[in-house]
């Protein structure tokens, strides 16, 4: 137990000193809040209130933190588990909570986003600017026929228009369906098709490290014939490339705004009005359309953003380096920060362009006080070296956060020493697309932290561990579940209630949410997330389903069969390894490997490309024909093989082991 008074300069100039400092800290199990850190929002009352009566606690927070048109009288309705509702008879508008109320309180000139472009361009977007554009776009969408409940797709890079697009949907009750900009247009098509999107908002071209990809042209080629998709709105992006426009269907974003009426009063919507769908990977090839509704989701994002990061909207400058296409971007770039009226940095580009120090340059330039990123990014920065952050003054930082995967203690300590100067609390926030907001996390400056542990449940949240048989585990490892509903939980899978119940609420009954992660509880009641227990791979904090990648691979004409597993990777956490059997007498070579990787990139996106492809004459199967991925994983990670007695043909494993043994 220690209060680490590690000085900022320790080891930054000298690699050996830094290594020695980190090495010496590895034995420290627990970091108590530093006396030098002054918490702004006290939390004791919240903890006590949530423990005494969670529903009363959430009701009070919903009254305090959100602005309502019609106050709610009901809090939780749990009469039909697992279909829970929160605050169901209340009416509100989410964009009003994120924009109008701040402008009405005289904070219209406050910066919402300091946008920083890849080529160093700067744009300052105030709350008043966002409100003006949101109203015009909301009117513009209405003029294209969008009504409350209709789905609007959003496929945009990290530019302020992405926030405007989401807020404009929320203003009129349209349901947004954002697709991560790194996905391939065919993945966009699938998501638009299954959600019956009426309009897609996209960009002419997206920049990445000095090159501009023609997004709109690619979208046309893939989505041109979708019957429900009536219109495509095209933002002229930074470094605009122009785009082919189809008369009657396509409209430029800036022209739509210019001709739309400036006023669009926020439409009062029911607390349970659907807000967005976000597709995420599950254990089958078909992505899950996770559906969130209005008030409960907004409450979760608003409350946790404040409580976890100790945000003071009047003084903090906040930056979350995620992409808005993931849930982290929804909750902690757009909705949480805007609802709290915070000033944020939004950065368009990659962490290594134009140079490896760009992130630290931005922190220095905008005097960022709260920084939130992913462990994989931290590990990459470690690889590049402490000299890059060492070039910049990072003394504005107060709080650091991580999300997306377990953080290894060494990366935690590097973050703590090199970026946080030993003085910033680190909040390791555990949550999921489904949970809407963080559920297990330290409260900055309140919770003692242990490197690698997401620590304790947030107020109002009830996680537990169960054994395979459903027995409670009070210390040791088990299956992570949440035993009570919480406001920002998903409400269903879009148009698939059955899959919703089956995926999350069948194993231990309809009131126990099964997370899909295994975890360990230590003697202090701290949670240590181990990882997924389903067929989901976590590559650099991005969720991918083995089945989805397999189905992309087998769609290639040369392939007869494929099995995909995860392999431990120091940089990305996990990496994708594909075992592939080719059709006919074709044999695997480098050209085929490159072709398959490119094929997966085209069908899903670059992030789904297998790191390794292993050619297999046959795959290990049980007598009933099920591929035994567990054994393939043993092979990929070079481990001794687990039980092979249930295999139909044990010789398959011998052949594979011999092959991989020589290929590596
Ligand atoms: C993993 C991202 C350990 C976990 C917000 C979860 C984590 C999945 C952490 C959800 C963390 C997320 N420590 N593991 N702090 N945060 N995970 O839906 O396996 O993209 O189930 O949401 O990421 O990924 P998703």
Relevant terms:
single chain, 664 residues, alpha/beta, eight-stranded mixed β-sheet, seven-stranded mixed β-sheet, 31 strands, globular, disordered N terminus, binds 5'-O-[(S)-ethoxy(hydroxy)phosphoryl]adenosine, nucleotide-binding, Acetate--CoA ligase
Return the average pLDDT rounded to an integer. 94
The global form is globular
Strand order of the largest sheet: 12-11-8-6-7-14-15-24
Intertermini distance: 43 Å
Brief sketch in words of this structure:
Residues 548-626 form the AMP-binding enzyme C-terminal domain. This is Acetate--CoA ligase. An 8-stranded mixed sheet has the order 12-11-8-6-7-14-15-24, sandwiched between helices.
What do you see in this structure?
The protein contains 20 helices and 31 strands. With 664 residues, it is an alpha/beta fold. Strands 12-11-8-6-7-14-15-24 form an 8-stranded mixed β-sheet, sandwiched between helices. A 7-stranded mixed β-sheet has the order 5-4-17-16-18-19-20, sandwiched between helices. Strands 22-21-23-25-26 form a 5-stranded antiparallel β-sheet. Helix 2 crosses helix 3. The N terminus is likely disordered.
């Amino acid at each position: 137990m220690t209060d680490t008074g590690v000085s900022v300069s320790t080891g930054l100039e000298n690699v050996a000193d830094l290594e020695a400092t980190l090495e010496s800290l590895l034995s420290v199990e627990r970091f108590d809040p530093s006396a030098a850190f002054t918490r702004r929002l006290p939390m004791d009352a919240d903890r006590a209130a949530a423990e005494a009566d969670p529903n009363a606690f959430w009701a009070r927070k919903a009254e305090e933190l959100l602005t309502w048109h019609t106050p709610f009288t009901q809090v939780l309705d749990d009469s039909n588990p697992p279909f829970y509702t929160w605050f169901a008879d209340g009416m509100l508008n989410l964009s009003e909570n994120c924009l109008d109320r701040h402008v009405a309180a005289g904070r219209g000139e406050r910066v919402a986003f300091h946008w920083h472009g890849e080529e160093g361009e700067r744009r300052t977007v105030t709350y008043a600017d966002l409100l003006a554009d949101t109203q015009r776009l909301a009117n513009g969408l209405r003029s294209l026929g969008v009504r409350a409940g209709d789905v609007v797709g959003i496929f945009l890079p990290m530019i302020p228009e992405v926030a405007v697009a989401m807020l404009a949907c929320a203003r009129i009750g349209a349901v947004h369906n954002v697709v991560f900009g790194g996905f391939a247009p065919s993945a966009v098509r699938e998501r638009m098709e299954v959600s019956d999107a009426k309009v897609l908002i996209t960009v002419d071209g997206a920049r990445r490290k000095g090159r501009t990809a023609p997004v709109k042209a690619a979208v046309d080629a893939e989505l041109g014939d979708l019957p429900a998709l009536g219109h495509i709105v095209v933002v002229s992006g930074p470094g605009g490339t122009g785009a082919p426009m189809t008369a009657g269907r396509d409209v430029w974003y800036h022209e739509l705004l210019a001709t739309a009426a400036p006023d669009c009063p926020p439409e009062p919507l029911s607390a349970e009005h659907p807000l967005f769908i976000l597709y995420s990977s599950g254990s089958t090839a078909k992505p899950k359309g996770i559906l969130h509704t209005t008030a409960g989701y907004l409450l979760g994002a608003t409350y946790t953003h404040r409580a976890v990061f100790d945000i003071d909207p009047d003084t903090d400058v906040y930056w979350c380096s995620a992409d808005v296409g993931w849930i982290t971007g929804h909750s902690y770039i757009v909705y949480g920060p805007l609802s709290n009226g915070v000033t944020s940095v939004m950065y368009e580009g990659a962490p290594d362009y134009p140079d490896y120090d760009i992130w630290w340059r931005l922190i220095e330039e905008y005097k960022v006080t709260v920084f939130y990123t992913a462990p994989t990014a931290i590990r990459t920065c470690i690889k590049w070296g402490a000299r890059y952050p060492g070039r910049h003054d990072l003394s504005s930082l107060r709080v650091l956060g991580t999300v997306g995967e377990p953080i290894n203690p060494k990366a935690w300590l590097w973050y703590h020493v090199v970026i946080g100067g030993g003085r910033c609390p680190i909040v390791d926030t555990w949550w999921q697309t489904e949970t809407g907001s963080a559920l297990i996390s330290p409260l900055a400056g309140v919770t003692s932290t242990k490197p690698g542990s997401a620590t304790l449940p947030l107020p109002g949240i009830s996680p537990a561990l169960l054994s395979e048989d459903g027995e409670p585990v009070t210390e040791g490892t088990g299956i992570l579940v949440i035993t009570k509903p919480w406001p920002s939980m998903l409400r269903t899978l879009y148009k698939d209630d059955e899959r919703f119940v089956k995926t999350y609420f069948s194993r231990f009954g309809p009131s126990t949410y099964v997370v899909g992660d295994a975890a360990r509880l230590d003697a202090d009641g701290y949670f240590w997330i181990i990882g997924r227990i389903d067929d989901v791979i976590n590559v650099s904090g991005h969720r991918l389903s083995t089945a989805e990648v397999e189905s992309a691979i087998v769609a290639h004409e040369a392939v007869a069969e494929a099995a995909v597993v995860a392999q431990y990777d120091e940089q990305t956490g996990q990496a994708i390894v594909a075992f592939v059997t080719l059709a006919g007498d074709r044999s695997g070579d480098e050209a085929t490997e490159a072709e398959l990787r490119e094929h997966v990139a085209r069908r899903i996106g670059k992030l789904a490309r297998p790191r390794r492809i292993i050619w297999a004459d046959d795959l290990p199967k049980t007598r009933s024909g099920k591929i035994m991925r567990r054994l393939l994983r043993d092979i990929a990670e070079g481990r001794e093989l687990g039980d092979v007695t249930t295999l139909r043909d044990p010789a398959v494993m011998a052949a594979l082991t011999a092959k991989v043994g020589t290929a590596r």
